UniProtKB/TrEMBL annotation:
Entry-linked InterPro entries: BTB-MATH_domain_protein (IPR052664), BTB/POZ_dom (IPR000210), MATH/TRAF_dom (IPR002083), SKP1/BTB/POZ_sf (IPR011333), TRAF-like (IPR008974)
Residues annotated as domain BTB: 143-210
Gene: Cnig_chr_II.g7919
Biological source species: Caenorhabditis nigoni
Protein name: BTB domain-containing protein
Domain of life, per lineage: Eukaryota
Gene3D superfamilies in UniProt: Apoptosis, Tumor Necrosis Factor Receptor Associated Protein 2, Chain A, Potassium Channel Kv1.1, Chain A
Annotated SMART domains: BTB, MATH
CDD domains reported for this sequence: BTB_POZ_ZBTB_KLHL-like, MATH
Amino acid sequence: MSAGEEKKFVMKHVFKKYPNWDGNYYGPKEEHFGVPWRIRILKKSEFEFVYLDCLKLEKDHFWSIRTKIDNKALNEKHKDRTRNHSFYNDHKSYNAFSENSRLREYLIDGKLTVDFEIEMIEMSGIEIPKVRKFDDDVAKEFSDIVLSTGSQKFYVNKMYLSLHSTYFKSLFLGNFEESEKSIIELKDIDPYYFQKFLEVLYGEAAITDDCVSGILKLADMYDSKTTTERCQEFLIHKSEHLLRDKFHVAVKYNLEELKKKCFSELKTAKDCHSILPDTPSQFSYELWEELFSKAIRVPN
């Protein structure tokens, strides 16, 4: 997997009732990078544990996932809330919290929020599910160029990619050394997101909250308006990302319709404050003017 923030995903669940009896309490199962995950609380006598479970089934071959986990909601008072952890066949849970009856300290209005940010450092022995294959016999038959990323090869059509990407149009039809090659290596591109980018470009319903940022990054890099528009439609109509996250994506990739949608959801001054950046330079002067104008028109 290549470097970049798109390797990260968030697992968050609000337990609306504090666990009053011994047993397991589960959050919903979510799939990220082709692997199912779940947050779990185990109450056992006077002890309480909070786990991040990897629900990948055991198979004949060995698999492993190396991660860095930021325990954002719990242990926020401690400096060591970020830890490295490896999941594999017979070691599929990360113990994020194990204290003697201290979960009550983290209750807000009687609810317990568990919030992890997980960075995928390395995966091995795991095949990520594909909506469409770009390396089977059909793809090879109709392909006239092979794009290589990492150890994966994608058999595609020059004309189709050229119609939907000015980058590939220049690469295939311009006066470049690569134009004469039958196999072109795309350096520093994560094959997972390139697979998803191609799936969207070919009309597949492959966009999820897990991969939309990675697809948008490639759509911007390759100047693919079709892919960008499909990502924007997903973020407007289907995404469950927080308003702040969607607004920052809209600003980063100039998604005007998404930005308008986010502005329409700013109902209070608190909403306006929630989307502010970590540093002022992240927003342009014009955008700050828009935000200020909006903030003075909405109730506190």
